[in-house]
Amino acid sequence: MASSIGNEKSVNPVLRISQLDALELNKALEQLVWSQFTSCFHGFKPGVLAQFEPEVKAFLWLILWRFTVYSKNATVGQAILNIQYKNNLSQTEKYQPLSKHQKLWYLIFTVGGRWLEERCYDLFSNRQLHSFRKIKRFINFGAGLLKLCELL
């Protein structure tokens, strides 16, 4: 991550506390969006939304990704704190935004990972085969590894 000051696009390292603050702001925004969306279904029969909840959340996070990271190289929390993602593969010292491929990988790992984590219990709960249990354990391990990587 990089912080840009003024009109210059110089790269400054970002403090870890600022990154954690940005994560908290992002979580708060996601909770706000989800609560506003679920309030639209307040008058419906209970359980209508529960059956498709992981897919609906993934779609909402896809929309958030499209209008934040894809278009502005920063999440909402990062934009508030004047932090942007930086392309570390670039050879220049100046700030370079993420490439489209990097943005797509970000989407796959964040939105796709969350969806898979929430949906894997439903996908593999009815299967009693040994191979399905191995796949489920592998997915749980991968989700834990992604959370660890986010923390680091």
Automatic annotation (TrEMBL):
Protein's pathway: Protein modification; protein ubiquitination
Pfam families found in the cross-reference section: Pex2_Pex12
Residue ranges annotated for the Pex N-terminal domain, each copy included: 27-136
Keyword terms of this UniProt record: Membrane, Metal-binding, Peroxisome, Protein transport, Transferase, Transmembrane, Transmembrane helix, Transport, Ubl conjugation pathway, Zinc, Zinc-finger
Membrane topology: Multi-pass membrane protein
Record GO terms (molecular function): ubiquitin protein ligase activity; zinc ion binding
UniProt enzyme class: transferase
InterPro entries associated with the record: PEX2/10, Pex_N
Catalytic activity, EC: 2.3.2.36
Domain of life: Eukaryota
Catalyzed chemical reaction(s): [E2 ubiquitin-conjugating enzyme]-S-ubiquitinyl-L-cysteine + [acceptor protein]-L-cysteine = [E2 ubiquitin-conjugating enzyme]-L-cysteine + [acceptor protein]-S-ubiquitinyl-L-cysteine
GO annotation (BP), single: fatty acid beta-oxidation
Localization of this protein: Peroxisome membrane
Gene Ontology cellular-component terms listed: Cdc73/Paf1 complex; peroxisomal membrane
Xref: PANTHER family: PEROXISOME BIOGENESIS FACTOR 2
Family according to the record: Belongs to the pex2/pex10/pex12 family.
Protein name: RING-type E3 ubiquitin transferase (cysteine targeting)
Protein species of origin: Syrrhaptes paradoxus
Lineage: Eukaryota, Metazoa, Chordata, Craniata, Vertebrata
